[in-house]
Automatic annotation (TrEMBL):
Residues 366-384 have a biased composition (Low complexity). This is serine C-palmitoyltransferase. Pfam families: Aminotran_1_2. GO terms for biological process: ceramide biosynthetic process; sphingosine biosynthetic process. It comes from Hermanssonia centrifuga. Coiled coil: none annotated.
Amino acid sequence: MSGRLTRTTQAEIDELVEEWVPEPLAAPLSQREQADLAAVPIIVGPTGPKPKLSTGKTVINLASYNFTGLAGNEIVKERSVETLRKYGLGSCGPPGFYGTQDVHIQLEQDLADFLGTESAIIYSQAFSTISSVIPAFCKRGDIIVADRGVNFAIQKGLQISRSTIRWYDHNDMKSLEQVLESTEKERRKKKGPLTRRFIVTEGIFDHDGAMADLPKLVELKLKYKYRLILDESVSFGSVGRTGRGLTELYNVPASQVDMLVGSLANGLTACGGFCAGSRVVVDHQRINGTSFVFSAAMPAMLSVAASEGINILRNTPSILDTLQDNVHAVRAILERVDCITIPSHQASPMIHLHVRLPSPTHLLPIAPSSPSLSSSGKPSNPLSVHPRDPEHFDLDLEEKLLQDIVEEALAQGVMITRAKRLRGQELVEVKPSIRLAVTAALSRKDCEKAASVIKAAFVKVVGKRR
């Protein structure tokens, strides 16, 4: 074999190296992607209900997760400045080593007391919270029954856990019970061992604003002996009489939820997330939650800001009343528009708007369909993340229309946003939508004005296709 080798001179090697062109790390941005990036508004100064943009225009803000209007709250700002002067800025270390400060412990106590759980643990990054909580408890061989509509962070947690995943139709309790039953029958048939079993879902779903039926979830988890992991990243701080989330809204004891996960960034306009539950559940995460163990603790002033936010919600329930009034005002205008469909729950302050095209001829399937996947009344396959009857839509067309609507609304002084997705990375492509974040910091009149602008933008953009 050695006699067949061709000896290459140094000059030839140099020439080959000079001619070599590496493959690009990523495909170049399309014109549409470049236009989307260029269209992102830049806020100058503080964010809030009426921020000023770099263009000099002041706009009504229905894009930021400032549900209870705590962003810019004077009490929160004063306490944060005091804490900054006393503690400095960064923690410079993970909580389990040398990053824990007394204000972090106080926030955890405040959260547990507010929610009515034994204990709570805080994470410094909201996205990493649920994607760390799931694999901290769920391992290879365990069974997770998950909603097909869960957010991307939960999807990452499921993948990291390497558990056996079974899927039920989005927010469908009948489908959930069927999957729980079939999973148990499968175990008995194979004479498999009893393993740890979990139901994983969201309170208010990030993808569409639908709301889970918590009482039914608790009923099923007790009946079939599962543990419940509930992601309240959107619902905590936005629903319930004082913003405690679904447990308060449905009057379900928080102790019935084994791992209650929430966002401090969304609900309390601070940063990071938390997991509340029993002391055993919380202490286990202090040594097994990857994001907790390896990420620097959140800045002290943001911990204090979150604690102050809890105090404000606890003592000022009228904030949540104002928020719900504004939600109803926005929906009252947009629900009557022919070219808009709203999949979100009536109480959700995060409202998704789908465009309803005048003709179904533009609709294309998001995944290949077959006769076996027709509307037959048969349940979906729990082994597949795809439902039996997937929703059909034209991804590129709808995203373009929605972006045109966003830009038209901004030109009229209302800042909204498309729900941004990592296309090609999520397990199931989600129907494009505009995501409104209603806030208690705006007056009802401002909300009605903003909704009217959005209505006009939809009618104008969609009307051009008729």
